[in-house]
Design a protein that fits this description.
Blueprint: E1 18-23, E2 26-33, E3 41-44, H1 56-63, E4 68-71, H2 87-100, E5 106-111, H3 113-124, E6 129-135, H4 148-161, H5 166-170, H6 176-188, H7 202-216, E7 230-235, H8 244-252, E8 257-261, H9 268-271, H10 273-284
Parallel strand pairs: 3-4, 3-5, 5-6, 6-7, 7-8
Antiparallel strand pairs: 1-2, 2-4
Helix pairs in contact: 1-10, 2-3
């Protein structure tokens, strides 16, 4: 999977072509950018998200030096198949996608629900992942993860009434700084003009929410077995996946690094992208 010398290296997520690969009877939509030939960084996305939901200010700095792959889970965006009823099954699908591309070793960058899936993947395939980034996320069985369903529906309603994007409420504090950061984030997600992904369906969103609820209400995984270098980050005021769960992950994963950003919510890494992106890129380097 190395790049030929005459093939230009794309390092802008807005310009990354959308590709497709079929595995297990489903076709997975994905995008890739950055220099190929090394272990890729696979991005695991959040609830209700498609390929278009990654902040280019996070992706692009990492893609300067690393092969980056983003993908739609089954039944989401341009991927076919059925949205899985559990996140363990979503992890199985992620493994199916990664191995179909021919990779035996990857690094992971995950956010929110993507972090839940990444943990389940490592529990089943401990040797697959070399380095791990967990942002805005928490452990299986984590306190109050199951409350995300009611919170999400409430914030979708608030967003509808104010003609806003639900992520402005779900990811950011509703103070002046948070509101500005939210608008800037949503605007960055619109930088890609061509070949945009299909938004998630209401049915798919409901299925994902139920899967998260099950994850929150199930027995914890043993994360003491995780040996890969791990970077954990969040805002200090996360309403979706309570910030204390990032500290919980930090305690459970030996040798992990923890960053908590002040006066920010679930999308703290997006609000503080100028600080976080270089840290994540350096952590994933080499």
């Amino acid at each position: 999977m190395s790049t030929t010398s005459n093939e230009p290296v794309i390092t802008s997520y807005a310009e990354a072509p959308t590709r497709a690969i079929t595995a297990g009877g489903a076709t997975y939509a994905y995008r890739e950018l950055g220099p190929k030939g090394d272990i890729p960084v696979v991005f695991f996305v959040h609830l209700a998200a498609t390929l278009d939901n990654w902040d280019p200010r996070i992706v692009d700095p990492i893609a300067q030096n690393r092969h980056v792959i983003t993908f739609d889970q089954r039944g989401v965006g341009a991927s076919t198949g059925k949205v899985p009823a559990t996140l363990e099954e979503a992890a199985d699908h992620a493994y199916e996608f990664i191995t179909a591309l021919g990779f035996e070793k990857i690094d992971i960058f995950s956010f929110s629900m993507g972090g839940f899936i990444a943990q389940d993947l490592i529990v089943k395939h401990p040797d697959l992942v070399r380095k791990l980034v967990l942002t805005g996320t928490g452990p299986r069985g984590g306190t109050d993860i199951d409350k995300v369903v009611a919170l999400t529906y409430w914030d979708i309603l608030r967003a509808t009434l104010t003609r806003s994007d639900p992520k402005e409420f779900l990811f950011f504090k509703r103070d002046a700084i948070g509101k500005r950061a939210a608008k800037a984030f949503v605007k960055r997600l619109e930088e890609r003009i061509v070949d945009r992904d299909k938004p998630i369906s209401i049915m798919a969103l409901r299925t994902q929410l139920k899967a998260i609820q099950k994850f929150g209400r199930s027995a914890p995984s043993d994360l003491s077995t995780f040996t890969q270098p791990t970077l954990i980050a969040n805002g200090d005021n996360d309403r979706m996946v309570p910030s204390v769960l990032s500290e919980d992950l930090h305690r459970r994963i030996k040798g992990s690094e923890l960053i908590i950003y002040p006066d920010s919510g679930h999308g703290g890494i997006f609000q503080f992208h100028e600080n976080f992106a270089p840290i994540a890129a350096e952590f994933l380097a080499g």
